[in-house]
Design brief:
Elements lengths: L3 H17 L12 E2 L8 E2 L2 H7 L6 H22 L8 H27 L10 H7 L8 H9 L2 H27 L8 H28 L16 E4 L1 E8 L29 H10 L13 E7 L2 E6 L2 E7 L5 E8 L4 E7 L2 E6 L24 E6 L7 E7 L6 E6 L6 E7 L29 E6 L7 E4 L19 E2 L6 E2 L7 E5 L4 E6 L2 E6 L7 E6 L7 E6 L5 E6 L20 E7 L2 E8 L16 E4 L6 E5 L5 E5 L7 E8 L12 E7 L2 E6 L3 E7 L7 H8 L6 E2 L13 H13 L5 H20 L4 H14 L6 H21 L34 H12 L11 H21 L8 H13 L1 H7 L5 H8 L4 H13 L6 E7 L7 E7 L8 H4 L4 H20 L4 H18 L4 H7 L6
Antiparallel strand pairs: 1-2, 3-30, 4-33, 5-6, 5-34, 6-7, 7-8, 9-10, 10-11, 11-12, 13-14, 14-15, 15-16, 17-18, 19-20, 20-21, 21-22, 23-24, 24-25, 25-26, 27-28, 28-29, 29-30, 31-32, 32-33, 35-36
Helix pairs in contact: 3-4, 3-7, 6-7, 7-8, 10-11, 11-12, 11-14, 12-13, 12-14, 13-14, 16-17, 22-23
């Protein structure tokens, strides 16, 4: 080895020779050096060694690929060898024959390739080699190989195809991994080989998938293709109506929206050979161009008896007939995509995202990079005349509007609050000020945000963005990209999109919650303050590619998230696609956190020409159960029971065959929603379908009838949920009886007694005559239901049935059958709220738990309270009633000079925020002068007395009460008005983390108040410390604790 000093001397000598112009020194004699790692000495190389290092004919990655692919191919041969003795299916024997013919030759080729380059050549027949390599992409495990060898007949056929498809996909993945390496596959021979591997294995995968479809027992597999005449299969549903897309909302020359290459003359349709057909199939997913105009149906919204179906081309308005069938009223052409819609009274809100969208709803699109005519954001229409909607507002946003969520309103201020989710590119700042793309360190970026939009009902043209909160930011560091950064989660996992957007945010205002399906994360938000959504939990899933939509159950205690793997345009329900990818993920909400329970994916295999993945759906309001109707694009419709979150079950479905047998056309169901007793589905290409549920072993006639009676509030908007309620009706009670009976949670005798009473109640209510004896019987049955236990679902159903029986009893006491018909099923008996009791606890063991356990389990302490009781609930109810009375007075109607008029005027003045802000501090100037004039004890007494009479709190208050020591006389009591925090424990308890947190936040709060009051920043800190010290001493803290509690106080 040459040492550094020796090398230095040599270099100096060479340099000297060069400087002297020595002619005998040639360039061939110059040293070639290869430096080592830091700290290591370099080594000399010969010219031959240098060329060897720089050889680019193949790379180490190429050699490793060939060594790995040999045992990979060999396992395929092993699997193929099992075929002859275990199946007589000709198609499978042909598959094995092709594998034996091709992969044996390819193994020999790879071994020769390695041998010619002096690389190690593996022997795949050695046990150690196979054991080492079974973890490679697509390789079957030893257990799977053993299972395959033990199988026969159809079981063997199915397992062989499943394993071989996975094996072939693994080979393709290995090629893809290789070609991502710099300098790999540079060798033309190797490149040709890898290309052949991808083409051959992809073609073979499609052939095997076709065979696997033929083995499926699900009737949805292999349905015939067709636009209007596709094969159909339906189970536990009835198709009531199918409406095509209206005129003007499809291309009459291409109603199926086929790619141009398939729109050729009839005599040109057939390929010349099987080879050409295979090439055609391989190309069918590569056509990615889109026409200027799209006519795809999208989402739906409902209001009263009106259905509005969105489209990339605009929207269509339908009137729902008595049987639920839609009748077209009008069509509105206003392209721009995506066309998701919501309805609030007479306003329709529509999402627009594409760069071709125009403010004037024009069809010609926009060519310029920057244009005042471009529109991307929320359109607002006045639909008071359903036949002639008028655009009355438009809110431009930086990333357009993919979806939106109506969060609140219109409230007392007449304003609607909407969350907007843009998922497209950020537009240029020259076009819309403030739109900044992602730049390192620039927190102004329009990425990683949602928009909070305000729409004034009285003047929608003034709709505006109030805020664009960075809801994905890290709360500790403030980094905008605070959640999933994009990429896969390790081997054999999905590549999940980066979380810089939400696709859907589904709000549940009554619970103060929203669930966000936000690209790379599922998120739970606190929206108790709609203007300031706050992230309270976020989850990731290694099998999710793109978190797409979210739906709560009716109680707001569960969330179904969907994964739009492939973006909705790819076949992702093939027989070999994982059942946990492109699926639903069901989460329970426990203590404000999302807890994963299970997956569900439509189990029927679909063909390559059907885009299929989880998409939009809604709750089916069957009381006592959690049921969801789900769209799967061309995978059809599924109805899923997820009452048991860990074990979802499909209970109904409807499906059609692909739109075309040659081309993959993006079609199928965009959305399927339950509304007013029917299931409505927007078929992207075909139109609009209406279905209804049928009784089955999974769903009783009474349960369906009860769902039809559910009160949805007369409105349904995507991404907005309200808890539905059911009337106190015998139909609803029978649904609970069916559920409890099927779960063996009711004795046959007791169930018969309940059903007999319900039959009697039905007759009584139909006749309109009261029956106090029957009412008494119903109450007795209700009380009995409170006594027994069971699991959580059973307890919930027993309680619901009990409350329903009590409500029916109240109705039966009246001669009018409609009395209390709309009253919630929650009812009282003898003035005691039975739902507050914990019937599972023996009162002799724990009377407090027995009396209060039910209420404690179902009631959370609101954030504004440190403690909470039933009295708070009563107080809030009374205050709400008072507010209604006062607001009614403020709305007018009282006689001039009346108390109602005066109360209303005072309230209106207090609520006139704009006027209050305009007046500023002027109305308080007199009181402030009284304070500023204090310069002596006498003036202080005058100020305190004057302000106290005006209702201003003083440091000390006084009151007159009977003397506690002598009740025959009154005395004046002085008391401290307050110490800022709720009580002295907040200052004195050193070991309480919550109190410590409150103390830590108090000093900065005081400092901020002082600064806003005009105190200079450099003195506000010491002033705040002084105020805090005063409060602490006022709390009478013991000397031994003051040192601890005053730690960090500056003076």
């Amino acid at each position: 080895m040459v040492t550094l000093p020796e090398l230095t001397n040599r270099l100096i000598f060479c340099a000297a020779l060069l400087l002297l112009g020595t002619p005998s020194l040639s360039s061939a004699q110059a040293l070639i050096i290869q430096p080592g790692a830091p700290g290591e000495s370099p080594r000399e190389l010969s010219a031959e060694e240098a060329v060897e290092i720089a050889d680019t004919s193949y790379s180490p990655a190429d050699a490793r690929f060939m060594r790995d692919m040999i045992p990979h191919h060999h396992q395929a041969l092993q699997m193929a060898e099992l075929v002859a003795d275990r199946t007589n299916r000709p198609e499978l024997i042909d598959v094995a024959g092709r594998i034996n013919a091709s992969q044996g030759d390819e193994i020999a080729f790879m071994q020769n390739w390695l041998r010619e380059r002096g690389e190690p050549v593996p022997n795949p027949t050695e046990h150690d080699a196979m054991h080492t390599h079974h973890k490679m992409a697509g390789m079957a495990t030893p257990q799977q190989m053993a299972d395959l060898a033990a199988a026969n007949g159809t079981d063997f056929d199915r397992l062989f195809l499943e394993l071989m498809i996975t094996h072939h996909k693994g080979a393709v993945k290995m090629v893809e991994k290789l070609t991502k390496q710099p300098g790999s596959a540079y060798d033309p021979v190797l490149y040709e080989f890898t290309t052949d591997v991808v083409n051959d294995q992809t073609t073979e995968i499609e052939r095997m998938h076709g065979l696997l479809l033929g083995l499926s027992s699900d009737p949805r597999a292999g349905l015939a293709a067709g636009l209007d005449d596709a094969g159909e299969v339906i189970w536990n549903l009835e198709l009531l109506a199918s409406l095509p897309r209206p005129d003007g909302f499809f291309d009459p020359q291409n109603p199926a929206e086929l790619p141009p290459k398939y729109l050729r003359k009839e005599d040109d349709e057939s390929p010349e050979s099987e080879e050409e057909e295979d090439k055609d199939k391989n190309k069918k997913e590569t056509y990615s161009r889109s026409p200027l105009l799209s006519f795809s149906n999208t989402d739906m919204a409902f209001s009263g008896d009106v259905l509005i179906a969105g489209s990339y081309h605009g929207f269509n308005i339908y009137r729902l007939q008595d049987d639920g069938r839609p009748e077209l009223l009008s069509s509105v052409v206003c392209p721009g995509g995506q066309g998701d819609v919501s309805v609030v009274d007479d306003l329709l809100i529509m999402s627009v995202e594409e760069t071709r969208g125009r403010l004037d709803c024009g069809l010609q699109g926009i060519d310029e990079d920057v244009s005042d005519e471009r529109f991307r954001g929320l359109r607002i229409f006045d639909i008071s005349d359903l036949t002639r909607p008028v655009q009355v507002g438009a809110v431009q946003t930086c990333r357009g509007s993919h979806t939106h969520s109506v969060v609140a309103g219109p409230g007392e201020d007449g304003k609607i609050i909407v969350y907007n989710s843009g998922t497209s590119s950020v537009r240029k700042e020259d076009e819309l000020a403030g739109c900044i793309d992602e730049s390192p360190g620039d927190d102004r970026t329009a990425l990683f945000r949602i928009d909070v939009i305000e729409i004034p009902v009285a003047d929608p043209s003034k709709a505006r963005i109030l805020d664009s909160p960075a809801v994905f930011a890290d709360p500790e560091t403030g980094v905008m990209a605070g959640l999933w950064r994009g990429g896969d989660h390790g081997d054999e996992t999905q590549k999940t999109s980066r979380t810089d957007q939400c696709h859907d945010i589904t709000v549940f205002p009554s619970a103060g919650l929203a669930a966000g399906a936000c690209s790379g994360n599922g998120i739970l938000f606190d929206i108790s303050d709609p203007l300031n959504p706050r992230r309270i939990d976020a989850v990731v899933d290694a099998g999710f590619a793109y978190w797409h939509s979210a739906t709560f159950n009716n109680d707001g205690t569960k969330v179904i998230f969907t994964d739009e793997w492939g973006g909705g345009t790819r076949p992702r329900c093939r027989a070999y696609d994982p059942l946990t990818w492109g699926a639903d993920a069901i989460y329970d909400i426990v203590d404000g956190k999302l807890e994963f329970q299970s997956y569900f994916k439509m189990p029927a295999p679909q063909v390559e020409e059907e885009n299929c993945v989880a998409h939009n759906g809604s709750i089916v309001p069957v009381p006592g159960r959690d049921i969801f109707v789900q769209a799967w694009y061309q995978g059809g419709i599924s109805v899923i029971d997820f009452t048991d979150s860990a074990n979802p079950v499909e209970i109904a479905y409807f499906d059609r065959g692909p739109i075309d047998e040659r081309a993959l056309v993006t079609g199928g169901y965009w959305s399927t929603y339950w509304y007013d007793g029917r299931i409505y589905g927007t078929e992207i290409v075909r139109g609009l379908d209406v279905l209804r549920l049928l009784p089955s072993e999974y769903l009783s006639e009474s349960e369906i009838a009860a769902a039809n009676m559910a009160d949805q509030g007369g409105v349904f908007n995507p991404q907005q949920q309200f808890p539905v309620s059911w009337p106190a009706d015998p139909v609803v009670a029978r649904a609970y009886v069916d559920q409890l009976s099927s779960a063996d949670a009711l004795s046959a005798e007791f169930a018969a007694d309940v059903m007999a009473a319900l039959n009697g109640a039905t007759k009584t209510l139909e006749k309109g005559s009261g029956d106090k004896k029957l009412a008494k019987q119903l109450r007795s049955l209700a009380a009995t239901l409170q006594e027994a236990g069971g699991d959580a679902v059973t307890k919930k159903r027993r309680l619901a049935l009990s409350q329903t029986l009590l409500g029916i009893a109240t109705r039966c006491e009246s001669a009018d059958p409609t009395v209390n018909d709309a009253t919630p099923t929650k009812a009282l008996i003898s003035g005691v709220e039975l739902g507050a009791l914990d019937m599972s606890t023996d009162p002799r063991d724990d009377f407090y738990q027995f009396v209060n356990g039910g209420w404690l389990d179902t009631t959370d302490i609101p954030e504004i309270y440190s403690g909470y009781t039933v009295y708070h609930e009563v107080m809030e109810t009374v205050e709400d009633a008072l507010r209604d009375i006062i607001e009614s007075a403020a709305a007018g109607g009282g006689e001039s000079g009346s108390e109602a008029q005066q109360v209303g005027d005072v309230y209106a003045s207090w609520m006139d925020i704009e006027k209050i802000n305009a007046l500023g501090i002027e109305p308080a100037a007199g009181d402030l002068k009284v304070v500023s004039d204090v310069d002596s004890i006498e003036s202080l007494r005058f100020a305190m007395a004057t302000l106290y009479r005006r209702g201003v709190m003083m440091p000390y208050s006084f009151s007159i009460y009977p003397d506690l020591k002598n009740s025959s006389r009154n005395t004046i009591y002085f008391s401290q008005s307050g110490i800022t925090m709720p009580n002295r424990d907040y200052y004195l308890q050193v070991d309480n983390d919550n109190f410590a947190k409150a103390r830590d936040g108090l000093r900065p709060y005081i400092e901020k108040l002082l600064q806003r009051s005009g105190v200079e920043r450099d003195t506000s800190t010491s002033a705040a410390d002084a105020v805090y010290t005063c409060l602490l001493y006022t709390s009478d803290a013991a000397d031994d604790r003051r040192g601890v509690l005053l730690s960090g106080v500056g003076g």
